[in-house]
Amino acid sequence: MSNRTALVTGASRGIGRACAQALAAAGHRVILAARSLDKLHELEQEIKNGGAEAFVLQIDLSDIQSITNSIAKATKEIGRVDILINNAGITKDGLAVRMKPADWQLVIDTNLSGAFYAIQQVLPSMMRERWGRIVNISSVVGEMGNPGQANYVASKAGLIGLTKSLAQEVGSRNITVNAIAPGFIETDMTHVLSEELKAKMLAQTPLRRMGTPEDIAQAVRFLVSDDASFITGHVLDVNGGIYM
């Protein structure tokens, strides 16, 4: 069993929840971070019932103070973070011509700046240990664009650039930094889409199915494992072939 500690943001549902479960199953201690605590406590109990260690951390990734305070608290109580999964993300969709400044800013702050500040909090201890794994959850739209999502796409494309720069900065310390770009995944975020749009997305996906949060979680599990120790600065498309 591993004694590594993994911090997963946006762990209360969807992809983040599946990632936390997969990492716990791989023998890691998991810090479950999100804004809403109810679902986190449920997941914490579930992971503990499975025999792994889990801790709950309330965090607001749009707020740098919340990020620094929460992660400092976690590392003080639990120890250093070896693995960081930057998964938390929000959408505030709208056409660019009419997008409110607040909707632009909140999405960039949460999805991109939040990920960066979380990385800043865990990097010093990873550098001291000369071991670390950072996985940023981007999106297929960060690679190919999407109308009506200028803010979300910019944040997800930004994560890819951040991944590549950081991989070059910290590689000499045996820290790998990779991104995963999920395609069309069955989550609360896609649940609200119209049937018409879902049918269109499926028609464009060669595998003719939506992905599951577990599909992404298994990719995360691989990238943080020793099997992936020579992979860094990479964007792994887990998208059923919708973008190649």
Itemize the secondary structure elements and their pairings.
Elements: E1 5-9, H1 14-25, E2 29-34, H2 37-49, E3 54-58, H3 64-78, E4 83-86, H4 101-129, E5 132-137, H5 141-144, H6 150-170, E6 175-182, H7 188-191, H8 195-203, H9 213-223, E7 235-238
Parallel strand pairs: 1-2, 1-4, 2-3, 4-5, 5-6, 6-7
Helix pairs in contact: 1-9, 3-4, 4-6
Task: Describe the protein's architecture and organization.
The structure is a single chain. The chain is α/β, with parallel strands linked by helices and 244 residues long. It contains nine helices and seven strands; from the N terminus they run βαβαβαβαβααβαααβ. It has helices spanning 14-25, 37-49, 64-78, 101-129, 141-144, 150-170, 188-191, 195-203, 213-223; strands at 5-9, 29-34, 54-58, 83-86, 132-137, 175-182, 235-238. It is globular and about 45 Å long. The protein starts with a strand and ends in a 6-residue tail after the last strand.
Round the Cα radius of gyration to an integer and report it. 17 Å
Q: Give the N-to-C terminal Cα separation.
A: 36 Å
What is the chains' assembly state?
single chain
**Proportion of residues in extended strands:** 15-25%
Q: What is the count of DSSP helices, taking H or I runs of 4+ residues?
A: 9
Average pLDDT taken over every residue? 96
The computed structural class is: alpha/beta
Provide the succession of SSEs. Answer: EHEHEHEHEHHEHHHE
Overall body shape: globular
Low-confidence stretches: none
Q: Based on DSSP secondary structure assignment, what is the total number of beta strands? A: 7
Major sheet attributes? 7 strands, parallel
Helix content: 40-55%
